[in-house]
Amino acid sequence: MNEAVSRAGLIIREKEPANREFPFPSLSPATPTNAFFVRTHFPIPAIRAKDWTLTVDGEVERELRLTYDELLGLPATTSPVLLECAGNGRAQLVPKAKGLLWDTGAVGTAEWTGVPLSAVLDRAGVKEGGVDVILQGADKGEVDDPRSPGVIHFERSLPLAKAMRPEVLLAYKMNGKDLTPDHGFPVRAIVGGWYGMASVKWLTHVTVTATPFEEFWQSLEYAYWKRERERPTLARVTEVQVKAQIARPGLSEAVPAGKPYRVFGAAWGGGSDVAAVEFSTDAGKKWAEARLLGEAVPFAWRLWELPWDVPEATGRYQVMARATDTEGRTQPEKHDADRRTYMINFVFTVEVEVV
Ligand code: MTE
Ligand code: MO
């Protein structure tokens, strides 16, 4: 593969707006900030912390306008949370998909510090009848899509019940330092358990609505076909689907024949922990159970490893990993076309060369 790489070793998928992918073979328990994937739709807005305010309005008793210092004065929590772009793995789709062709690196786990959104909503007092909470970013532009309504902001909503959960933060630190401009300085949402598009960066407006919010970013983009009624309808993409990814061996890696090799990777689910990871070296005929490392941390990934007694026989091996969560959900063998080019968690094949 011939790819442009940034100074920090990220693969540049698009220069402007900035879209950069983490090289998954360099997996570590916590992704360093400068190695964390970047997904943007518009130019990065330059916001000074002293000029930033968060407006909370809509179906609330009291409209709020919080300053950066006021936000930092509220009780905060810190925990590792995984972000995965809903299009992560898109390069694996056949036929070739439109959109950014992420390989396996539009995912990372960082430690986020912030104030639970619920604390701010409680201050504002959500009125009876509030159903959706819109999170709007300061970034805006025109989307290259005939269905897009001219210049728009990036925004997504959460149902009120999710917005009130403790894993939803107004985050201002990533890995112990102020957010970088790429990752949403000065304040972004972090929505544990949901795909990355919910974690709105450069957050400036929170609006509670009395009706479900349906617009471009959740009824056209980041939406999938749901078959619950008579006809399929486009529903918003929400929860992260269970998935295991192999970091080593990497794609086309040359593995020495007849020697022990340490296979390792990461696995994650949305709202549930990973119960098991299995690994196959014969395209899914036989599976061996991997060892899960460390402790399960809700909404973060779990690293896993497995010793592989690499055979003497040289040649190409089709290796695979698959995860199952604590609710018994396991990865599918094929991508469901109703998901369009999102929520890609079918079991990938990695071709490895034993030499
Ligand atoms: N927030 C704003 N304001 N604008 C964006 O383009 N992209 C979203 C989300 N938040 C986006 C945004 C998407 S699709 C993803 S996957 C995550 O940010 C990526 O977060 P990161 O760039 O910090 O990795
Ligand atoms: Mo994304």
UniProtKB/TrEMBL annotation:
Q: Which residues form the Oxidoreductase molybdopterin-binding domain?
A: 41-217
Instruction: Tell me which cofactor or cofactors this protein depends on.
Output: Mo-molybdopterin
- Domain Moybdenum cofactor oxidoreductase dimerisation, residue spans: 237-354
Origin superkingdom: Bacteria
Q: Does the keyword Magnesium apply?
A: no
PANTHER family noted in UniProt: SULFITE OXIDASE, MITOCHONDRIAL (PTHR19372:SF7), SULFITE REDUCTASE (PTHR19372)
What is the protein name stated in its UniProt record? Answer: Sulfite oxidase
